[in-house]
Amino acid sequence: MNAIEMIGVSKSYGQVRALQDMCLSVPAGSIFGLMGPNGAGKTTSIKLMLGLMEPTAGSLTVLGSIPSGDGMVLRRRIGFVPEDFSLYPNMTGLEILEFNARLYGCSVDENVRRLQTVFELPLARKIATYSKGMRKLLGLYIALSTEPELLILDEPTEGLDPMVRSHFLGVLADETARRNLTVFFSSHILSEVEKICDTVAFMRFGRTVLQDSVESIKERYRVYTVRFGAGHSPRDVKNIVIQRERALGQDAWDIEALADQEQARTAFADAGGTVLNVQSLPFDEIFLRFVEA
């Protein structure tokens, strides 16, 4: 079952198209990372998922519901931490949690006791005294305190120092495993996505250009050094996705391809090529290959 399903979703703002035929499948119980450069459409996608706006075209379901029609009910089942958010500075952390619990119609007592040992936040202090990292952690604390089925995070660790970021991601991973929670978050910090996500999607110009598990992407995307026989070249290669190629001279090429190794070797052999070497690429370099203009 998929917690989020987007099929051919487009969203336009006047003449500007933010999303174009966006397709996305987020498995229930997974940690899913949406990656892309600034302006790729990540935040627009999240707003659609929350029912804060309607798609111009396409189909979108979240937890089996249509956000634009069931937004009020659906948002009670979702925890959300935006990239930038404001908290009442004269309220304490505990008062914020209690205020949020009243909005959701639930009690914070049990969750506060358990989560406090995880987050180690000074809930008796006023928000005005909190650092940026503490406010981010409180945002996650608030989102988790209502026992959501789905947690949506928009650039959750942007601007945090490495220690706070590590703590944030550790809490996220532990809570996901404990609750069988589905987590969807957007980010352009590649190292954290690689570390924590089961599945990722790369976005470029408002559409998904690749979706797969992190391990599968790293395993399938490789650089092949191939020597072609007379009259043959990379143009003859069929049935695999070639992202880029670079001539080395003497009929040899470096070819970056997305394919199983056996499939790639067969495709090169069928095109008159012999594989001389196979090299893996770091995850961040793979991402750049798909989103570079």
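[next item in queue]
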Amino acid sequence: MTTTLYYFTGTGNCLQAARELAAELGGADIVNIARAMDKPLDQSAECAGIIYPVYMFGMPLIVSRFLKKFVSLKGKYIFAVATYGGMPGNSLGQTAAELKLQGQTLAAGFGLRMPGNYTPLYGAISEKKQEKLFLKARKRIKEIAVAVREKRQCRIERNNFFVNLFFSGILYKLGAPRIPDMDSAFWTDMKCTGCGICAKACPVKNVALVDGRPKWLHRCEQCMACLQWCPEQAIQYGADTLKRRRYHHPGVKLEDIINTGSGC
């Protein structure tokens, strides 16, 4: 069975999940969604997986746009994995609905809890707590791999009706259109050295260096890659991130994030 795993990531959770799932499947092509937006999808693979983080209790905007390309994948087994820190909401239900508009069916939708990275609201949990989540995630990925290998039709995992209605419905619909301009809350403190790592780490090229300082270009995905990967922790968001611990997956290196190859 041949499989292509399409992932979006800012701090490495989904890349690591894709790597581990590919290993469990006995090999799979791993493709960065941000670098595949203007490329045709692989028609030869029997299965296609979408792996993305939950933002604002829903899909990242770039993933929603990317799914429009799935209109070309006829007769494929399509599944999705949504990584989340708090709860998945109805993000996978959104995926199923978007695929339906493309004439496709989401055969299975799996939630995968990972450490959260939204520093504007909270700091990173301890390494000990992270490792506990990683152990559970590895077990969960093994279960997902079995279902994918057998091409099972599984239920779409989501929260209850009222949670989905409020968080993934009302809040997401009100907040998601504002995401591209939410980068106006980023700023740099005096520790900034102008190294440019923030611009290199941004998966959607939303950061440019101007006079040695980062400038955000208002096509943000709120992935927090710029803030989390800054080696000096000089990038802040609003007023509350100065003393909060940063996070990126310990199994993913900066080079994996900024690599220009299609498979990283």
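[queue empty]
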